Amino acid sequence: MRALFAALMLLFPMLALAGPNTVAVLYFDNQGNEELEPLKVGLADMMISDLHGSDAYTVIERSRLQAILDELELGHSEVVDPATAAKVGKLLGAEWYITGSYSEILGSLQISARMFKIETSEIVQADTVMDKPREFVAMEQQLAAQMKAALLRETAASAGAAEPAPTTAPAPTPAAPEPTGTRSTPTDTTPPTTATADIVTQDPDTLAAAVSFSEGLIYLDQKDVARARDSFATAVAQDPGLDAAKSQLASLDL
Known about the structure:
The protein is an alpha/beta fold. Helices cover 42% and strands 15% of the residues. Helix 2 (39-51) packs across helix 6. The longest helix is centred in the middle third of the chain and has 23 residues, at 136-158.
């Protein structure tokens, strides 16, 4: 592995130089549930998208990360070893890298994210969120907001500017407990005027949709466009609000 890294440094000299104010998001480590294994890819992709929107730093796209992992014959593996992760970050030309883990514990989902400064191996931000699996998207967005605040703080400090006041992303609003079976509706003495009044709106299955979206990304990396399209379509059906899946599906249908 060490020899392979050295060879890659020679093949990609520009990538071997850490870029100023550049961050890479590596794949997350799945701790336990095999059904959630593909999520490591989708979680990183969603965080990359949510970190965009600032001119203070540059976010490396997932396709570049995958190209490096393919060269290392790691496929879609997470990079757990800190030394290896730092080397991957250097190959990507990053100043910081973000990685983390997720696990399902007694019906709850826990996601942890950590941001490292590659030059010093210092952890500059570490956060953990835990909630019901159906709050997956809100949890990812909360972590991305916290990482973004840390990046803005770091870039301001490196530029010699006053650090912005620390910001805390709002926690996901807890969903009200639901009874099993049909969701209850408010009491109304007025009889329904149409047959559609009795239709029950189901909560989107956000975690299952994120897994399907992740599977689609993996198929896309493997050049299996047909299966990628099916996975993205499944993700949209499971959660019509998952914009990442809708965007991928639309791009395939162009």
